[in-house]
Amino acid sequence: MTGRRPAEPGMTIAQVETPALIVDLDAMEANIKALAARVAAYPSVRVTPHAKAHKSVEIARRQMAAGAARMCCQNVAEAEAMAAGGINSILLSNEIIGVEKAKRLAQVARTAKVGVCVDHVDQVKVLADAAREADITFDVLIEIDVGMGRCGVTSAAEAVALAKDVAKHKNLHFSGLQAYHGTAQHLRHPEERVAAIAKAAAFARETADALRTAGLPCDVIAGAGTGSYENEMISGVYNELQCGSYVFMDADYGRNDTAYPFRNALFILASVISAAAPGRAVCDAGLKSLSAESGLPVAYEAPGVTYIKATDEHGTLQLSPQATVKPGDKLKLIPGHCDPTVNLHDWLVACRGDKVEAVWPVARGW
Fold this sequence. Notes:
Elements: E1 20-24, H1 25-39, E2 46-47, H2 57-65, E3 71-73, H3 76-84, E4 89-92, H4 99-108, E5 113-118, H5 121-134, E6 138-143, H6 156-167, E7 172-178, H7 190-213, E8 220-223, H8 229-233, E9 240-241, H9 251-254, E10 266-277, E11 280-283, E12 298-300, E13 305-310, E14 315-319, E15 330-334, H10 338-342, E16 347-352, E17 355-361
Parallel strand pairs: 1-16, 2-9, 3-4, 4-5, 5-6, 6-7, 7-8, 8-9
Antiparallel strand pairs: 1-10, 10-11, 10-15, 11-14, 12-15, 13-14, 16-17
Helix pairs in contact: 3-4, 4-5, 6-7
């Protein structure tokens, strides 16, 4: 983390040094409240938000205070940061391999309840050894591939065999299934997401039934995300919803044909540094400030301004004849994908209205 902060509490947004990440606190708090209220209608379902979306202990605390059952993390460093910040229940919703990472995760389990995913016996052994050495217990979820084509076993029989291997170890507790369908989050039309999650839920149900038949209780079936959580929530199969981007939203989710109850709460604040040619301007937010793998950012409340190209330190803006942009102007940009954009920054500048209320560190690491 760098020592230099882009702003201090009490400043106005106009005083924030750019490029910087701005969090609209009113919008973020409304998003947290909206998901909690929606899920409250299904008492058997829990919210387990993804910390990877914001990498902020301050935001995680607000999600837990709103009723989240635990925080999901995608790597050991995130889990370490969450536990150090007082988050007492964490799921590493990913596989890890390697003795040192397993030992680090075992240290996290000294202060927080920790779950972790596996899809191979080699991962189980590493985790079991680390848990035994540290005298802690990991909850273990078997990941199943429900359509993402990434991690996860591909049959109920494989899941049963792996769960039996987990159950052999005194310091591991088999607790259920990880059944996340990330690709479904970005299917643009509701009927596409309905079909994808119906297929995922059917496989999850089949696998859970096979586990229970084998005498292995399957208490947790986890998955879902911002784009499809409604489908998993009403399926009668899933009981943990791992939404992440809902807290901020981004331009990619804005392309889904869905009436989300969530607002844009994360912006890249950029300054116009050049407007030397008609119809074109350049801002100081390029690829070192934003992720473009899910599309370029969208200018927020800036009619006639379109972000058309990102290079290392520059963002090229196309201007309509009606757009009035000059050097020194500040723009808010909605990132294409919030998660990796956050990971490019050291600080989140939390604002209420036009005022900076707080500056929060981003928990980066490996």
